[in-house]
Automatic annotation (TrEMBL):
Enzyme superclass (EC): transferase
Source species of the chain: Stentor coeruleus
Pfam family, one: Pkinase
UniProt-recorded name of the protein: non-specific serine/threonine protein kinase
Lineage: Eukaryota, Sar, Alveolata, Ciliophora, Postciliodesmatophora
Catalyzed reactions per annotation: L-threonyl-[protein] + ATP = O-phospho-L-threonyl-[protein] + ADP + H(+); L-seryl-[protein] + ATP = O-phospho-L-seryl-[protein] + ADP + H(+)
């Protein structure tokens, strides 16, 4: 894969060592976001951060996290390229600026929608022991169909003991623990979420000052202006619970989602997803070695097609023998013509037209032979060995050639 497979439409943003573009993939004409990282310009720590972002995004499949599509090295530009989902309605910071210019508050229902969806996304990260560490309005992405997605995992960190020590993040959204340079945990992200929601409500960050010393004093004391009266006490209390200076009194994501007042706003259709953190992408001096360890592409057509009637992988029409029913559920593909088995097996199952049929005990299947070649028991000397009727009155026969 290379940049030749994409048409660059416009620039979305630019950082010190990376640029994000809106692109069209030529093979499917779908719009994506492309992040080009000038890898050779990075220090080793920054290179590991770039690879860590890919690792985290590729590990998670959740509606409130920007989804990973592909990563590769472009040999011509000597850059690391990350293809991710494109959010077609911009980011929350842009929306706040728009409302500032018009002098209009964002509706309360929309704020609740933000709070719940961002919390779901954060909980997904926290369940994998991942701290985002840079949650801010510019990293909350919006889609035209109402979805809210967390992105930009460049400084996110995986913590074995759930405790972090490194000072990082954007000052306006950083928790008191980060400012004090003391150990912090997942609740530091919840503080940042409180800052994001406060900014969405008032159209300004909660803590503002003329210099860093003044900002530090306000944050460690938790001094911010009251939320406008146009919003409910419930919303005010929610944000207040996130902006507790003492982390022991601050909400967790689980506590937020369990609050009774959240119940009437939660979409019950929101589904959890099982995510498994992939292994660390090892950093090598040679590009080729890093490229070899990058996750596989995750475009829609690269996923296995499913049979709608059974939610099982599509099978050939042939019948296949498998050792037991549980193995059938666990194997990614049942379409293997050759199998290996031990000398004595108690039960066999045959798969035909997506129905599982239990067959009587057979003495042996010869190793690495077709499933049609069976050694019959002594009491079964005829060419036809086993015949079973299915529900549609068709039969399945296993024969010896």
């Amino acid at each position: 894969m290379s940049l030749k497979n994409f048409e660059i439409l416009c620039e979305l943003g630019k950082g010190t060592y990376s640029t994000v573009y809106k692109v069209k993939r030529l093979t499917d004409n779908i719009i994506y976001a492309l992040k080009i990282v000038r890898f050779l310009s990075l220090k080793d720590k920054e290179k590991r951060n770039a690879l860590n972002e890919i690792r985290i995004l590729a590990s998670i499949n959740h509606p409130n996290i920007i989804s990973y599509k592909e990563a590769f090295f472009d040999e011509k530009s000597r850059s690391l390229c990350l293809i991710i989902e494109y959010a077609d309605n911009g980011d929350l910071y842009q929306k706040i600026l728009h409302h500032q210019k018009k002098g209009l508050y964002i509706s309360e229902d929309y704020i609740w929608n933000l709070a719940i969806q961002i919390t779901h996304g954060l909980k997904t990260l926290h369940d994998l022991n991942i701290l985002h560490r840079d949650l801010k309005s510019a990293n909350v992405f919006l889609t035209k169909d109402g979805n809210v997605k967390i992105g930009d995992m460049n400084v996110s960190k995986i913590s074995k003991d759930c405790i972090m020590h490194t000072q990082t993040g954007t000052p306006y959204y950083a928790s008191p623990e980060v400012w004090k340079d003391i150990p912090y945990d997942f609740k530091s992200d919840v503080w940042s979420l409180g800052c994001v929601l406060y900014e969405a409500v008032t159209l300004k960050p909660p803590f503002r000052a003329d210099d860093m010393k003044g900002l530090y004093r306000k944050i460690i004391k938790g001094e911010y202006c009251p939320i406008p009266k146009v919003y409910s006490n419930d919303l005010s209390n929610l944000i207040e619970g996130m902006l507790q200076v003492d982390p022991s009194y601050r909400f967790t994501c689980d506590q937020i989602l369990s609050l009774p007042l959240i119940g009437k706003y939660i979409d019950n259709k929101t589904e959890g997803s099982e995510n498994v953190l992939m292994q660390t992408i090892k950093f090598h001096k040679k590009f080729s070695l890093i490229s070899r360890n990058l996750p596989e592409a995750n475009y829609a057509e690269s996923r296995p097609k499913r049979n709608k009637s059974t939610n099982m992988p599509n099978l050939r029409k042939d019948s296949y023998l498998i050792r037991n029913a549980s193995e059938m559920k666990n194997r990614k593909s049942l379409g293997k013509e050759k199998i290996e088995a031990g000398k004595f097996i108690d039960k066999y199952y045959v798969q035909d037209d997506n129905k599982i049929i239990l067959l009587p005990k057979v003495r042996r299947i010869e190793s690495k032979k077709s499933a049609k070649i069976l050694l019959p028991r002594k009491d079964m000397q005829k060419k036809e060995i086993l015949t079973r009727k299915t529900s549609n009155n068709s039969s399945i026969t296993l024969c010896v050639d």
